[in-house]
Design goal:
Length: 213
């Protein structure tokens, strides 16, 4: 059980349809309820605001990306797989997603909400790719991956191909660049390789005179 039911799916899909048609400014809970074919009471019982409904949409996108084990022999391959799954989950709601993204450019509160949700999502994507997301190092990885996601998102916003070929190419290029940067920076993060190597190679106390080596 993933805790997601048909009401969640229809309400969030309705939110995206209204946003696509009316823009974020015209997206009201009354309009969403009408689009979803439900009353305001059940919508209010589940979602206190349109922002809460928007966050639930992000949860559904994450759930779609995490539904199956990711594929890939390397961290980069696994990240590519799980992030493309997120784009695949966004694609049916493309117009609404882009309408909200445009609104966020001039709405600091919506932008902050999306950024915080994005960081949480990237933490889950790291975990799916078998990359630790906890602690300071994990937070830095999540921020770096969010930067990759946002850069790839800009390509996705213009990519109208059926197979998202331009998005895949951009994501692969961005992950390759991030991988190179990670190799440079990871040793300096808490628990980085040099720190462990130093611990393993700690000088031993000199042997007592007359003792065997």
């Amino acid at each position: 059980m993933d805790g997601i039911d048909a009401f969640d799916r229809e309400a969030t899909a309705a939110l995206m349809r209204v946003a696509a048609r009316e823009g974020w400014a015209g997206t009201t809970m009354a309009a969403v309820a009408s689009e979803a074919g439900c009353g305001l009471a059940p919508l209010r019982a589940r979602f206190p605001s349109r922002e809460a409904l928007f966050l639930r949409f992000g949860t559904l996108v994450d759930a779609a990306a995490l539904a199956k084990p990711v594929i890939g022999d390397t961290p980069r391959e696994r990240l590519f797989d799980v992030l493309m799954r997120r784009f695949d989950a966004l694609s049916p709601h493309r117009a609404g997603v882009l309408a909200i993204a445009r609104a966020a450019q001039s709405d600091p509160c919506l932008l902050a909400l999306g950024a915080a949700a994005g960081l949480r999502s990237m933490g889950w994507m790291l975990e799916a790719a078998a990359i630790p997301s906890s602690g300071l190092a994990g937070q830095l990885r999540a921020k770096a991956l969010l930067a990759v996601w946002l850069a790839a998102f800009r390509t996705w916003a213009k990519d109208e191909s059926a197979d998202l070929s331009a998005t895949m190419a951009a994501l692969d290029r961005l992950l390759a660049r991030a991988e190179g940067l990670a190799r440079t920076l990871e040793p300096f993060l808490p628990g980085g390789r040099p720190a462990r190597a130093a611990a393993q190679q700690e000088p031993q106390a000199p042997a007592e005179p007359g003792s065997s080596a």
